[in-house]
Amino acid sequence: MTTLLRITCFILSVVAVPSCALLHDPRFERVVRVQALADPSFRGRNPRWNEELRARIEAASVYFEREFEIRFVTVNAAAWPERERIASTAGLMVKLKQEFPAQKNDGAFDLIVAFTAEPLSRYLPTGRPRADRIGDCRVGLGNYVIATVSGIFRNVPEHPDLNYDTVALIHELAHLFGAEHVQDTASIMHESFDYRSAFDMKNRSVILKNRNCPFAK
Fold first, then answer.
1. Cα–Cα–Cα angle for 89, 210, 147, nearest 5°?
2. How far apart are CA 24 and CA 9, in angstroms?
3. Of 36, 64, 25, which is closest to residue 153 (Cα–Cα)?
4. Is the pLDDT assigned to residue 63 strictly greater than 80?
5. pTM for this structure?
6. What is the pLDDT of residue 161?
7. Which of 111, 112, 147, 116 is nearest to 129 (CA)?
8. What digits encode the pLDDT tens for the residues 159-174?
């Protein structure tokens, strides 16, 4: 797999695709390739939704790069679902797994993050951002995240605004690497994390332990 990726990157470098270099940046212990998706509600609120998708992933990545040497690189940003609006993050997750089954992933990306701007209540189970599983090395890391959006994203490069949306995305991405909910109210892994911006020591250790685990198939 590593050899194939290197060959692919060499070919891409010949045609001047700069993002390929990010997949082998020696500054990071792990690089995760992301397929980012925007549902109709997300696309309808910002004509530059493609750029916003990438900026949101980048904001979460800056945090993970600093704390865990994990970099998230958006290799593709696309519209999904095309027209159907689904007013439930649980419903979106079901449809996402049906239409993008992990076992049929051709290796172009490791993870899918789908964004929705539906007017959902984060206090109800149907409106909470979610990951498909708590990952570990035995069964593999998680493959899917549903991220909710509450407003237009405004970000300063290298210094992302840790607003609720960004913290929620960080929280769900951490689940993929094995982080679990804790009772520590100061931790970003508390179920009601709001604007917390630090991990508890237990979950920090878990993420570092699982950092290089394979993604599940």
1. 15
2. 9
3. 36
4. yes
5. 0.86
6. 66
7. 147
8. 556 888 999 999 999 9
Handedness of CA 59, 95, 47, 107 (dihedral sign): positive
Three-class secondary structure assignment of the chain: CHHHHHHHHHHHHHCCCCHHHHCCCCCCCEEEEEEEEECHHHHCCCCCHHHHHHHHHHHHHHHHHHHHCEEEEEEEEEECCCCCCCCCHHHHHHHHHHHCCHHHCCCCCCEEEEEECCCCCCCCHHHCCEECCCCECCCEECCEEEEECCCCCCCECCECCCCHHHHHHHHHHHHHCCCCCECCCCCCCECCCCCCCCCCHHHHHHHHHHCCCCECC
Of residues 153, 129, 120, 119, the one with CA closest to residue 46: 153
6 pLDDT higher than 50: no
Q: Which of 64, 12, 66, 4 is nearest to 34 (CA)?
A: 64
Contact between 130 and 145 (Cβ < 8 Å): yes
Amino acid (1-letter code) at residue 46: N
Tell me the two tokens of residue 136.
């570990």
CA 197 distance to own-chain centroid? 17
Q: Please name the amino acid found at residue 9.
A: C
pLDDT digits (tens, 9 = 90+) for 16-33: 444 454 555 666 689 999
Compute how many other C-beta atoms are within 10 angstroms of the C-beta atom of residue 64: 21
| pLDDT band at 7; cut points 50, 70, 90 | very low
Tell me the CA distances in angstroms from 154 to 31, 65, 139, 161, one per residue in order.
Answer: 24, 20, 36, 8
